[in-house]
Every structure is written in C-alpha cells, then in structure tokens.
Batch of 4 targets.
Target 1
Amino acid sequence: MIEKLNEYVLKYSYGGKSKMSLNFKVSDREKFDAIWTLLNSSYNEESGWVIDYTIVDIYDEYAIVYNYDNRCYARVNYTKNDEDNTIALGEFTTIYAMYVTENEKNALEGLRAMNGDNFELIDEKFSTAMSETAEANGKLESANSQIEEYSTKISELEGNLTTLNTEKETISTKFDSATEKVTALEAEVTSLKEYKAAIEKEKKLAVINTYSSVLSEDAIEDFTNRIDEYADEIALDKDMAYALKKSNFSIFN
C-alpha cells in the first residue's frame, strides 16, 4: 500500500485553492524496477521477452549493470524526478571488474580517494608527476654537470695551489740560504772592519809613541783619548807635529 502511494502526488484543496501537497519520493525498489525496465526495452511478448541487462547495484546517481550480449559491465547514469516520480537514463560507460586481493583493493581505493574518487585523475596526476620528475631530473643533471665543472676547477686550483706552495717552499729555502749567506758576509765584514780598526789603531798608537818623548804627558794622554776621532795615522801625525811645534818650536831649528 505504501509503495502504491509513492506513485501519486496527493493534493488537498479547500475552496478551490491548493492548500497542501505531499510528494512521495521513488523508493529503492521502484528505482530498481524503473531502471531495469528502461534497460530491457525488449522484455515484452512482442520481442520475445529478451533480457539485455541485469542490475548489479544501484547508487545515488548511477547504477552498475551487466550486458548479457556484450558480456561486459557498464556504469549507467540516471536522474530521478521526484515531482512526477520518473527516472531517465543517461550516459553508459563501459567498466571492468578486476579480481584483486584485499590489500590490493585497499590500495586501489586509497588511490581513488586521493584523486577525487576518480581513477581517471590518477593517469593525469601520474603524467604530471612524471613531467615534474623529468624536469627535476633535468635540473639535477644540470646541477651535477655544474658540480662536476666546479669540481674540475677546484682540482685545477688545488693543483695550482700545490705548485705555488712548492714554489713558495723553494723560494723560502733559497731565501733562508741567502739570509744565511748575508749573515755570514755581514759577520765577515764586521770581522774585517774590526781587524782594519785594530790595524789602524796600532798605526795611530805607533805615531803617538814616536811623540811620547817630545810632548808632555798631558798632550800624549789627550791624543790617546781622541785616537778614534782620526781617520788614519797621517791625520793624527799632522796634529801631533803641529802640537809639538807650538810647544817646542826650537826643536825644528
């Protein structure tokens, strides 16, 4: 009785005016019967009661059906009109059943859930991912090429640095050797100067000694204290001779 009421729209009118209307939506059983009837238009006496489709399952906007003639499954979109309790079929899309394990089923459902509940988007996203991967690989290859180029330059610079360090060590060794020679020469020069000064002093002392008997002790002491002021014995001899002349001029007569 309830299913029969769903076929009608009940309207109550008062005084010729519509007061209230009740719309009974199509039940699941009626959806099944309506879709099945639309799918099997040849199921009548005239056509020999031919059944083309069986319904596997029904969802809110589409039904899964099986075609006996083609031996394949299809997804059939449908629309329902609650105003006049009618159903119209839409696009047919061939689908395929696959036998998978529970783990494979869960993986497939996870993939579909991540792609807008549509397996078709997987290929699109996979292509995008592959394109991005190819682009990333290209960048990586370019980066590796640059790294190799930089590594080569670094190796060259390290080789140059090694050469420079070797040259530096050679120059440092030569510099140290030259420094040692200069130090030795300076020591030799100093020794020679000291030797020369000693010889010159002996000559000057010899000059002073020649005047020790003719000049006063004070004069001899004064010339001895200033002996280093004279460049050589000749200059000293000249001053001592002049001092002698001043102190005892008669010695030259």
Target 2
Amino acid sequence: MLREQKNQSRSIANPPAYLCLAAMIALLIATPVGTLAQTPARLGMLVQEMGRAQSQAIKGLTEELEKLGYREGKELFSETRNVKGNRAALQPAAGELLEKKVDVIFTTGNSATRVASEATKDTPIVFVYPGNPIGAGIVKSPEERAENLTGIAAYASQTLEKRLALVRQIVPSAKKIVVFYDLNNSFARDSFKRAASAAKDIGLESAGYGVKSVEELKTTLASLPGEPGMAIFQVPDELVESEAEFLFATARAKKLPTMFNEESWVIAGALAAYGPNYREMGRQAARLIDSIIKGKKPKFLPLERASKFDLTLNYRTATLIGLKLPPAMLKRADKVIR
C-alpha cells in the first residue's frame, strides 16, 4: 500500500511528457494573440515643419496605432525627424531613419514624401498629403507609383466649389470674391481661373490680383477697397500664405470676410475654412501602416482619399468685421473659434 502511494506521488510530481505537451498546447490556445512575444515594429516619421496640420496627423496616427495594439516602447518604437522648415535637412534626416532600419516611414506633405521616395525604393513609405499627389508629382497615377509608396490624399483643390458655396451661405450678402495669387506659380494661376469660373456658375463676381513678390502683395492688399459684398478667397499659394498674418489683419481692418482651406488658418484669424480633417487622415495612415507591418506590400494597398472634411468658423473674426454668422451655419460647423 505504501509503495502504491509513493508511485502515485511520483506520477503526480513527474507527469508523462505527452501530458506536459498537451498542457502547453492548451495554454497557447487560451492565450490571446496580442500577449505573445513579438518583435517591436520601428516607425520613422519625416516632417518638414510641425504645424497644426502635421501635429494633428501624427496625433491621429499614434491614437489609432495604440488602438490597433501598438504601444509606444513595447510593440512600437518611433523615430521622428522634424527639420523645422529646413528643406535641405530633409535628405540627411531621411538617411538617419534608414540607418535606424525602420520598418515604415511616415511622411507629411510634398517635400518630405519626395525626399523619402528618392532615399529608398525598399522601405515602405506612407504619406499624408492635402492636395493631389498626381499633380504634385508624388505619383504618376494611383496605379503607377513606386512599389514602396502608398498614402492618404485630400485632393483639397477639388473642394473649391464647396468652399465657394459656403461663402454664399456664411456671408449671404457676398457678391464678389477677391483672389491673390503668385504670378510665378502656374498651379496658383490655374486655381484662380477655376475659382473664377466656379464663382460665375453660382452668381459671384471675381477679381484676381497676381503678384510676384511679398512687397507687391502687401501693397496690393493695402490699396484694396473694402467694398460691401466683397470676400477674400484663398487658393493654395505659398507666397500669399507666407503673409497670412498681414492678410488677416488687413481684412479685419477693411471688414472683409476670408475663406481658406484648412482649420489652422481659421485659428490664425481667417473667418472660415473648409478642409480635410488631418487627425482622421492620420488614423487612416495608421491602418495602412498596420497592414504593412503585418506583411502587406504598399503596392497592393490603394491610395486612399481623406474621409472627413471639416467646416471651421471664427466667431471672434466675425465680430471684428461686423458679421453676424447665420445660426444654421454655427450649428453646422464642426468647430467654432470663440
């Protein structure tokens, strides 16, 4: 009897190998996939300048990646290179990210995306771009592009007609739009022509002021008559946008409404803007990055369009120019700056 008890004790202490194996398999089946050990992904971010649009895109990106199970410092390690407006520093910054052997490079804007594309044909690149990536030369077409490149584009110029219609709704007394643009910028010239044609279609007059320098822009703005029913309408243009603060101050002094294409301009002083939600674009980019980390090739991931556009109004600017914003528009706006 004593010998049988000892044998039973020995069996319990040293179970057969097949029982150990079965127990291990059962444990693995019961363990959630997310808790199993995995090699952390390495994400590189290349940013020309950290404006509001870029910071919002990165915020949406990190929020969605965490939601997908990528915790910073655990399942994910990020390397950010912000060259603070210095385009010449983009190339060495891209090289640094590649030396870190990142799995994916995330870019914002045209310049950073172009530089990253030139730096590597192997490391996947996911971009966020406000305009048309074809017109900007980032890709030849949605189907014809570098095999390591995909991303989210807002095609912001295609919202021009929508922004013009909003001018009529936000400023019911509007009769004429005024557009400032760089004469040396062919894209800006074409954008003005499109704006003038679209304005005519909805019964608005238009006037274009082509300028070649900051000094000419300031002089032209200063001499602009503040006529009733006039509104300043923006087309994407680096020269004009570089003097946005002066433009907004002049518009307020002349009691003129201003319509721009991004929330950041309204925060800076424009009356209104309709444009892509960069935070949501960042979330879309995160889902593409997740697919790439899991093994999908960028060439098999289609270029996506921005899924959300926001109307932003500046109540303070409206008050300063003596405009009472229609209650329906205040209710409809995604964001109101007060």
Target 3
Amino acid sequence: MMFLASAGDPLFVHGINFAVALAVIIKVVLAFVFLLVSVLMMIWFERKIISDMQNRVGPDRAGPWGILQSLADGTKLFFKEDLLPDRADKRIFRLAPYLSAVPAFLSFAIVPIGGTITVGHYTTELQVADPPIGILFLLAMSAVAVYGVMLAGWSSGSKYPLLGSVRASAQMVSYEAALGLAVAAVVLYTGDLSTRAIVNGQEGLLRHVLPSWNVFRLGFVPFFVFLIASTAELNRPPFDLVEAEQELVGGFHTEYSSIRFALFFLAEFMNTITMSAIVVTLFLGGPDGPGFHFLRWLWPILWFLGKTLVLLFVQVWLRGTLPRLRYDQLMDLGWKVLIPGSLVWLLILGGMLISFKWGLIVLIASVLFGAALMRARALGAARVEEVGS
C-alpha cells in the first residue's frame, strides 16, 4: 500500500512566508479549476450514461462525442435574461445561489486526493487544507448548503418554490442524523477528526487479505447508510422531491434564470462530486492503493480518481434506474430505517471496541428490542383495523 503523509501539512513546518502563502493560493486555485472542469465533465458523463441506458445517442454535436455540450449550455445561460420576480425578497433571492455553491467547494477543500509532492525546497500534501476538525467542518458545510435551497424557495414569493424549500428542510433534518451517525462510526474507530488521519488509518491489510478500509472494518452498514443519506442530502434521484417537476414545476428554483439558475446547477453537480470524494475518503481508503517505484506521487491520485469515478457512476446508475419515492416513503426510510439502523450499528461497534463479549451482548439486546418493537407495531395495526371494521 502507498505510504501517505503523517498528520499536519509539512508545508507549514518552518512557518509562513511568501512562498508558502503562494503555494496555498495555487492549491486553492487548482482545486477550484479542477472542480469546475469536473462539473462540466460530470454533466456530459451523466447525460451519456443515461442515454446509453435508454438506448439514445445523447449529446453528440458540440465537440468530439458531444464533450463540449456542457460548455455550450453554460455559455448560453450566461447570456440569458436574469429575471427578478416582483414579489421576491431581492437580497435573499440573490444570495441563495451562492449559499448552495460555496459550501460544495469548501467541503472539497478538506479531501486528500494524494500523498505528498515536493517542489523545490517545499513539500506539501495534495490537499487544500487539513484542519484538525475536518469532519465537523464537513457536517457544518452540509448543514449550511440546505439554507441556499430553503431561502431560494422562501424568497421567490411563489407557492411552488416555497413548497420545495419546505421539503428541503424536512429532508435535511431526516437524513442529516443518519449521515452524522455513519460519520460517528468512522470517527469512533479512527479516533481522529482529521480527514488525513482517517485516510492514514486505513493503510495496510485486514487479516492479510482485504484492504483495511473502513467499509470492511465497520461492516458495510455505515458505508451504505452514508451513501443513501448523502444522496438524499444532494436532492438527487430518487430523493429529488425538492424539485419534483410533475408536482412543483421546478421546485425551489422555479423563478430563477440565467447565471443564478446556473449556480444551482453547478452546486448540484459539484456537491455530487464532493460527496463521492468524501465517501472515498471516509470508507474506501482515499488515495490509498498499490503503486510502483516510478512517479510515486501519481499513483495515489489515480487511485483516488478511479474510486471517485466508480461512485459517480453509481449515482448516475441510480438516477437512470430508480423511480422517485413518494414523500411518505422518503420520510419512512429516513426515520424508521436509516436512523435506527445506524444508531444500533454504532452501539454494536462501540461494544466491539470494548470487547467481543460486549459487542455480542449489544447485538442480542438490539435484536430482541427490534423484535419486540415489530410485534408491538403489528398488534397496534391489528387493533386499528379491528376498530375500523
């Protein structure tokens, strides 16, 4: 397995000077450009994959294989008329798109995409920032992002966008808890809130066979809970009730046009890329993987990009395969399945950390409690049916 850097960016070992500040600015600019280009490629990738699934051609006019179609669409949006509804709260209406787009980039800043690289006399991590509370920062940005959707619908002065924003708030509350419990399982086993430390903790092999990634160490459940909850947080199908076009015209962004609509579009795809990268970091070892002795700095980047691309394909696959959930199904999945399941699994993992005996006791107690709860629910449903008849 590739060796990754120890805790703390070595760029700041000798303090901050002009060269160090310049290196940080270059990393920020490169990460921003990388995300923008990735969004353009992701839109093309999604349209091509879905068209193949539906036996269509997809984009094929702008550039080779239609690869410049996203650039053409973005250019068109820049020159469209920017509308402002008469009944809108003008300041909030203008601010909302930025509240959606900025957290997506800030969340990506804590993702380690490789090991270390040396340029001249300076060595730095291939990561914009590695704060000691990186995971808390991620959860904070995830919570802030929903304000963009909520305020966009509220400030539009229209009924359908308002309904979309209310749905966004309920959906965020329902799935944020499950997302946090899945992250808590990772932190529990790693003992650190730094994303770099979490990646370093997944080096090596598990029982000399499997990679020591958290997806295997934690028993798959937190991985799938995080994947489902993050998809719901992103408002992507089958959880896109916030902008359900059959019910709400366009949802929260019905009244938006031109560059402001483009910012929401940018935020959706940027969040998809960022969350896929976060899943890779927390559960799939980040840039960890086999490498060779030449170009040692390159192999972790390729592993990271490969894992992220697989997860992005899964997101597109879900979009092209699953129908949109009903709202009651959305709430049931969050409150009745993901939150209880992730909480019970977190208790079992905590018991296993103490000893195997304690983990087994928690597991048996959870199974008995779940069976009793299901029995009580069945009796209650039968009694309601009796009264109704």
Target 4
Amino acid sequence: MSARARRDRAPALGAVGRSAARGAGLALALAGLLAGAALGVEVAQAQAQAQAQGQGRAGGARGARGTAGRPGGFGAPAGPAPTARAQAPFDSTGYWVSLITEAWRFRMVVPGPGDYDEIPLSLAGKELADTFNAAAEEAKGEACKAYGAPVLLWLPTRLHISWADDNTLRVDTDAGMQTRLLRFEPTAEDRMQPASLQGLTTAEWVIHGAGGPGGRRGGPPGGPPGPRFGYIKATTTDLLPGYLRKNGVPYGGKTTSMTEYWEQHTAPGGAQWLIVTTRLTDPVYLADPYVFSPTFRKEPDGARWNPQPCSLRW
C-alpha cells in the first residue's frame, strides 16, 4: 500500500476506533445501569426482609411483655390492678401533729379585721372580707366554713390517717372534727355528690423509684425488692365557699381548685415528717395562686388526740 493510501485510510480507522470505543462505553454504561438496578432490587428486598424480621421480633417482645406473669400465656386474662393501698411507697397511717414553723401569728392567733397579709387577695376578695362578722357567722352555725379542705391542714391540728378501703385514704382532724377522703378510684356516685366543705378529692400515687427485684434499677432475679419512692398528688374540686382565715378571708365554691402533693420523709434519727405542699387557685377571690406547705410530725399513738368543735374565736 502506498504512503498516500495509508494516510487516507488512517482517518477512517480512527473514526471506526472512536465509534467502537463509544459503543463499548455505551455498552459498559448500560451494563452498569442494569447491574445497579439489579443491586437496588436486591437491597430493597433485603431491607424489606429485615424490616419484617424486626417487626416479628418486636411483636414477639410485645407479646412477651403482655403475657409476663399471666398464667396461660398469650391471650390469658390480666389479673386485677393493684389497689392504691398495695401500691403505696410509704405508710402514712397513724397520728400526726402540726408543726407551726411558718406564719405563726396567722395560724395560732385569730388575725384582726383587715389583716390579710401573705394572701394574694383580689379586690373582690378584700371587699367581701371587709364585711365579715364572726359573731354573726357563728350564730348562723357557719363556723365550720373556716375548716374546709383548702385550709383544714393549715390549721393547728392533729391528723389521724387510715385506709377507709383499699382505694380511699381517710384523714380525720381533731380541730373542727372534720374528715377528708382521698379517693384513688372515685366512682360515678362520688362524682355526683353535691358540693361540700371538703369537696371531692381525687388522688393518685406518683412513683419515681423502681421497686422490682434486685434493687432500685433491677438486678439479678431473686434479689431483694428495691426501695420505692413517690408521693400523692391530690386534686380537690366541688367545694362550698369558705374562709382561708377566721377573719373572713374568702375562697369561692365551684371556681376554686386545690392541688396537693403529699410527701413523707424520715429524718436520720428516725422521726417521720409529712409535708403537704398546697396550691390553691380561685379566679374570683384570689389574684394569684395561694401556695403553702403544712408540715406534720408523726406521733407514737393517739394519746394526745383532742377533738374540738369548729370555732371562729380561737
């Protein structure tokens, strides 16, 4: 072949080579796409299978939790829910005496007319309190209006606490001889009762310490029960109007709500303390929530129990 022929053929061969290269590249790209698609399908299938297996394990775990402790396994009826008495993280039953460590002059002595310090009275509350006549109230038999649930534990008194039943904690006072019932399972009949001085108190245990075997956070099976900590949260509604002080500081009826937190503590020497942090709201007679914390010390017995009737004079 002549040199000129070779020169003429070279561009043609180059074009063919480039065309072949492009074809090979396209083939490789297409093969890559097909392989990627196949791999994507396999990955999707693997993910779906793993998800199904995970759901199966979760379902099995849920089933195990749901049937733990139930005879007969899955589908067997659950046992009865534990009562409030059985759940109690502390035993508050017995006799308790008020410790007047704050607001002494308002609690141990009847304040004079117009002495409303430390209570966030609204203008309407002050106007009503200014009209108060203790003698007239006692003559009408209304002295116990100063012993309603919102203020009862703030008075200097003794408490006798007992279980009325497995879901009702009973609190009796010797001052005014009043009875409060903390209902952990109030019935429809309880909710239909008319308003009263002590109202309807709905209570619940708030447990914040695990008490299972093996200590506070669990442990080996068969270990001793761990300590349990908690408190009672109690909400009182359906109240009749009453007095926060025996000089006529008022609180309303249906508009008043009270939330309490009952905590029990044991001092290093063994003395037991009961603290009832109380938050009272009344949009009519209070400008702000009224918060206070009656404190009690446990007594060995009821030897000092001294019931006295309601009075606005002492």
